[in-house]
């Protein structure tokens, strides 16, 4: 089965040219999204991907109609490949059922791996540079050392009946943090 997919990026664009090209390519089913914005959902793409079965062809007019970014395109291409679905791009003459088309898939995957490796390398370099300047990453401590000491004192304080005088929720309210934060600091104290 040939499944056609088209997408227009703005409300002003008309999908008819893509629909006509997909019909001319003998697509059995055609799905078209009218999505604007990078984060807009694409329900028709989701339906098309669900409809595509092993041995089917997923037909689009241009490569940019499938993915909004290189990363997104690579992810969708890999999904199709893993599902055993061939990708056909009409305007670029790409057909992954041919050796040249499979080479294209391999190149997309290689570019994706390269892009990921470069991103990881840049992240490590940035963290190393920040550490060299005395900055450490991660979230800022929720409580200052004096507040931690106060929380521990309140937690350890017993009433006349021998029970804890303050609840963890009461301590959290007093210090303006979540109850889980108090537990986290109390656990660190018990471990140390």
Keywords:
192 residues, Rossmann fold, elongated, alpha/beta, Arc Repressor Mutant, subunit A, DNA binding, 5-stranded mixed beta sheet
Question: Please, could you describe this protein's structure?
Answer:
This protein has helices spanning 16-24, 43-51, 70-82, 99-132, 145-156, 168-175, 179-191; strands at residues 2-8, 29-34, 57-60, 86-89, 94-95. Helix 5 runs antiparallel to helix 6. Helix 1 links the parallel strand 1 (2-8) and strand 2 (29-34). The protein is elongated. A five-stranded mixed β-sheet has the order 2-1-3-4-5, sandwiched between helices. The protein has two domains: 2-113, Rossmann fold; 145-191, Orthogonal Bundle (Arc Repressor Mutant, subunit A). It has 192 residues and is of the alpha/beta class.
Overview in brief:
This protein is an alpha/beta fold. The chain has 2 domains: 2-113, Resolvase, N-terminal catalytic domain (Rossmann fold); 145-191, Arc Repressor Mutant, subunit A (Orthogonal Bundle), CATH 1.10.10. The protein contains 7 helices and 5 strands.
How would you classify the helix and strand content by structural class?
alpha/beta
Whole-number total of structural domains = 2
Q: What's the main sheet like?
A: 5 strands, mixed
Instruction: Give the low-confidence spans.
Output: none
**What string, H for helix and E for strand, traces the elements in order?**
EHEHEHEEHHHH
Query: In the CATH hierarchy, what is the architecture of the largest domain at level 2?
Result: 3-Layer(aba) Sandwich
Radius of gyration over all CA atoms, rounded: 28 Å
CATH topology of the largest domain: Rossmann fold
Strand order of the largest sheet: 2-1-3-4-5
What general outline do the C-alpha atoms trace? elongated
Can you give the mean pLDDT?
85
Oligomer: single chain
